[in-house]
Amino acid sequence: MENLISLVNKIQRACTALGDHGDESAMPTLWDSLPSIAVVGGQSSGKSSVLESIVGKDFLPRGSGIVTRRPLVLQLHKIDEGKEYAEFMHLPRKRFTDFAAVRKEISDETDRETGRSKGISSVPIHLSIFSPNVVNLTLVDLPGLTKVAVEGQPEGIVQDIEDMVRAFIEKPNCIILAISPANQDLATSDAIKISREVDPKGERTFGVLTKIDLMDQGTNAVDILEGRSYKLQFPWIGVVNRSQADINKSVDMIAARRREREYFASSSEYRHLGNRMGSEHLGRVLSKHLEVVIKSRIPGLQSLISKTIGELESELSRLGKPIAADAGGKLYVIMEISRTFDQIFKEHLDGVRSGGEKIYGVFDNQFPAALKRLQFDKQLSMDNIRKLITEADGYQPHLIAPEQGYRRLIESSLICIRGPAEAAVDAVHGILKDLAQKSINETTELKQYPPLRVEVANAAFESLERMKEESKRATLQLVDMECGYLTVDFFRKLPQDIEKGGNPTVSLFDRYNDSYLRRVGHNVLNYVNMVCSSLRIAIPKSIVHCQVREAKRCLLDHFFAELGAKEARQLAKLLDEDPAVMQRRTSLARRLELYRSAQSEIEAVAWSK
């Protein structure tokens, strides 16, 4: 069972090294899940004396006002033999055999964190004491509760101390050691008051009564110690500490323990309780209870650690790996991230991801609808037909069919198709840009490097812009080709006037009558509709060839070509990372190491049991 306390000690030390000491943090915290014993008491309650009695050494700072201004995690390790010594976690290679030096180091380390302003801090000091005269136990000594700030301390320190103490003891894994002086009314005890707030049923509170020997003559603490005045789940334990005169004379702690045993054994009021009184008994009870609690928490702790490891690994994966130091490594990272983006973009076009279907919507709905909305009636009005045919004939009227007039009418109508054709190119370009932006947002690695994200986005948009211009040129060429060369077979199949009984000798002016012009307009409209049907098929093919397929084939080719010419400094600039992300990754990696180490330690102890 002693291995369990050592295990928690080791994990607590690692937590503090990582800055995980249970305060508010965006990081998962292991500290809060570890069972611990927090020592709570008001000033002058005898809290320091109780701890020193358990340890058997005089090592805590003393003085007026608030002396304990940082939590002190006191880890006691029982050794079989040898000289007693102490170690601080912040001084790992230094052993203290002089406990007066331990006291001074606690004060100095407190000032290093809080300054000499007498403020407080929640960052704990870790002190390990190795002695044959202790039990395996871990205690957290919290600042003493007070009602008045002394000179030189911040005005809000009274509330700050209460908030810190409450933050520690309200956690369900915290065992509360509530220190109360017997020579004061228990109803005014600061320790009992705050313990009752967080543990109203007294299920995790141990009551310790100090200064029993200083009670007024004729009074005793039997009602409290037997649980009649204030009942807790665990029996109250009374202790007799050294007096101030004993402390001033540096009375040996071992001798003080002996006198404490003699006091309870010889006192008529407490003789019947003597076997469960005293600081030695308190240490044994707390050690045994802590072992039981730790053992009961191990399954839940293992589950929490496994779950947190998965969460940490997932977030680290999302944040990406640290940047390589050499230029080749940086270039490789940039290429891999860019290819990831390119692959996501292709998946959108190929239907693996959504978005590509919008392009078909342009070809199947938007473009045909735009063609249907073209108002050829304006081009083929009677007045416009008569005007264009007359102008095309010039001084010599046409003999059979107004060929030049036909050409002009067809050209003026087909030119209208350029508008829907350009609009289709622009619509597909807009969709491709949206898909590129969506792909950038979906490329997790690009979030890690904002400069690279901007560069890849600009490169993709520039490529799409070039493809759009090429597509527009090719698409409009299709329209221009239809304008520049008419399909002769269409006109050869048209019935001639003479075959319809027409009389070529009729007056020239009769050739421009409404019936004749309507037939010309009808023929032109049929031809234009035939061309529209042809272009409705050809223009989507041109757009896909020039824009969609090219975007799939070589969206970032120009960017990759430029990368090869960049210097190491320029590559490094592309991989400039948000400092907050770098710090977050480092913190997560260290925390993941802590959790994995804790997992191995706990599993080793669990298997050994």
Topology diagram in text:
Elements: H1 2-17, E1 36-41, H2 47-55, E2 72-78, E3 85-88, E4 91-96, H3 99-114, E5 125-131, E6 137-141, H4 157-169, E7 174-181, H5 190-198, E8 205-210, H6 222-225, E9 237-238, H7 244-248, H8 253-266, H9 279-319, H10 327-350, H11 357-372, H12 376-379, H13 382-393, H14 403-414, H15 418-442, H16 444-448, H17 450-484, H18 488-492, H19 514-554, H20 557-563, H21 568-574, H22 579-608
Helix pairs in contact: 1-9, 1-22, 9-22, 10-15, 10-21, 11-15, 13-14, 14-17, 14-19, 15-17, 15-19, 17-19
Q: What do you see in this structure?
A:
InterPro entries: Dynamin (IPR022812), Dynamin_GTPase (IPR001401), Dynamin_GTPase_CS (IPR019762), Dynamin_N (IPR045063), Dynamin_stalk (IPR000375), G_DYNAMIN_dom (IPR030381), GED (IPR003130), GED_dom (IPR020850). Keywords: Cell cycle, Cell division, Cytoplasm, Cytoskeleton, GTP-binding, Hydrolase, Microtubule, Motor protein, Nucleotide-binding. The chain has two domains: 31-316, P-loop containing nucleotide triphosphate hydrolases (Rossmann fold, 3-Layer(aba) Sandwich), CATH 3.40.50.300; 327-496 and 508-577, Four Helix Bundle (Hemerythrin (Met), subunit A). It is built from 22 helices and nine strands. It has helices at residues 2-17, 47-55, 99-114, 157-169, 190-198, 222-225, 244-248, 253-266, 279-319, 327-350, 357-372, 376-379, 382-393, 403-414, 418-442, 444-448, 450-484, 488-492, 514-554, 557-563, 568-574, 579-608; strands at residues 36-41, 72-78, 85-88, 91-96, 125-131, 137-141, 174-181, 205-210, 237-238. The longest helix is centred in the middle third of the chain and has 41 residues, at 279-319. It starts with a helix and ends with a helix. Residues 497-502 and 504-509 have low confidence and may be disordered. It has a nine-stranded mixed beta sheet, sandwiched between helices. The chain is of the alpha/beta class. It is rod-shaped.
